[in-house]
Amino acid sequence: MVNLQKYKAKWLQNLEKAGVFAPAFELCEIIQHAAGIDRAHQLAGDAVLTDKQIDAVEELLALRCKGTPLQYILGKWEFYGLDFFVGEGVLIPRADTETLVELGLKLMKNVPAPHIADLCSGSGCVAIALAKSLPLSQVAAVELSDAAYGYLTRNIKLNEAHNVKSLQLDVLAQSSPSILTKKNTAKFDLIISNPPYIRTSDLKELQREVQKEPVMALDGTADGLHFYREITRLYKNCLKKGGWLAYEVGDDQSTDVQNILEQNGFANITVQNDLGGFERVVAGRRK
Ligand code: GLN
Asked: Which residues are involved in binding S-adenosyl-L-methionine (predicted)?
């Protein structure tokens, strides 16, 4: 048995040297995960670790220092007050994306039992957060990647989101809108999406941790706008009249996405800022 405090300074230093953004927080999370010692006990001066616990912590620290995101190491992450399984092959839910959920909820406030589709669903965080907040809604969550789809179905179970139905489809395939709506084209009150939107040439500039996330969830093609153009064109007729299409967008994409919506006949263009002050969500209404 060794006193935890003996190791803490060295471990913190390792994380700092590796350029980890919030080393004290991350160390605390890693110790809790690897050794089962919660925050309060870690802070107590008399916390002790067995050799096995030390090895377990050091193994995870080594992964973290090599750039594996903390969220993948923990295997779970919180979004909109709910837990989601995460790991290699699925985009980690971001706090910014809660802005998308909030706008979606606002837009559906007066719709008693909305039909919603979430395209490029990934972990399912948007679909599941909406479904849990709107128990009478029916939410279709569409994802193509095998790895992400596995997380999506597990997260539906984890959150007991019985009103979410998962579909493994390529949202860009011409046949997908009719599969999604079962040919009843004007079906949805809300179509919502956080598609890949990073310009291909910017991918290599991304933070080391983000580079461990699936490129398929990030690569928005040369100008970053391909998914907005295609989803808007392919799915506009899947909305009921008066239904909403809502997107998360990249830091400098708000105007371009507003234009795409307008060119496709959408009205009531609505923009929402994230907590960092960026125009993060753009929505429009089918006339
Ligand atoms: N917000 C993510 C990032 O900046 C990108 C997510 C996306 O492409 N949809 O890393």
From this structure: 143, 194
Query: Does 194 sit in the ligand 1 pocket, CB within 6 Å?
Result: yes
Rounded distance from Cα 112 to ligand 1 centre (Å): 31
Q: Is residue 75 part of a domain?
A: no
Residues of the domain holding 169: 80-286
Best of 71, 94, 225, 275 for a ligand 1 pocket test (most atoms within 8 Å of beta carbon):
94
Centroid of ligand 1 to alpha carbon of 25 (angstroms): 23
Q: Where does residue 204 rank: exposed (0-12), middle (13-18), buried (19+ CB within 10 A)?
A: exposed
Number of domains in the chain: 2
42 occurs within a structural domain: yes
The reply to whether ligand 1 has any atom less than 6 angstroms from the CB of 94 is: yes
Domain boundary residue, one of 38, 66, 94: 66
Give yes or no: residues 209 and 150 share one domain: yes
Ligand 1 pocket, residue 212 CB under 6 Å: no
Quick one: tokens of 87? Answer: 């790991």
**pLDDT by residue, tens only, the chain of 287 residues:** 889 989 999 999 999 999 998 999 999 999 999 999 999 999 887 889 999 999 999 999 999 999 999 999 999 999 999 999 999 999 999 999 999 999 999 999 999 999 999 999 999 999 999 999 999 999 999 999 999 999 999 999 999 999 999 999 999 999 999 999 998 889 999 999 999 999 999 999 999 999 999 999 999 999 999 999 999 999 999 999 999 999 999 999 999 999 999 999 999 999 999 999 999 999 999 99
Residue with tokens 């391909």: 226
Q: Please list, in sequence order, all residues whose beta carbon lies within 8 angstroms of the beta carbon of residue 51, skipping any fewer than 6 positions away.
A: 2
Nearest-angstrom CA–CA distance, 1 and 138 = 53
Tell me the ipTM for this assembly.
Answer: 0.94
CA of 97 to the centre of ligand 1 (A): 9
The rounded distance, in Å, linking the Cα atoms of 90 and 216 is 9
User: Would 73 be classed as within a structural domain?
Assistant: no
